[in-house]
Amino acid sequence: MSATVAKPGDTVVITRPAAQTQPLATHIAALGRPVVELPLLEISPLPEPAALLAALARLCAPTPGYALVAFVSPNAIDAAFAHLDHWPAGVKLAVLGEGSRAALAKHGIRPGEVDIVSPAADVPSDTEHLLQALDLTALQGQPVLIIRGESGRELMADGLRAAGAVVDVVPAYRRQLPQLTPALAALLRQLLARPCDWIITSSEALRGLMSLLAELDLRYPDAMQQNAVVSMQHQHLIIPHARIAETAKNLGFTRLTLTGSGDERLLAALQSRL
Question: What pLDDT is recorded for position 225?
Answer without folding.
Answer: 62
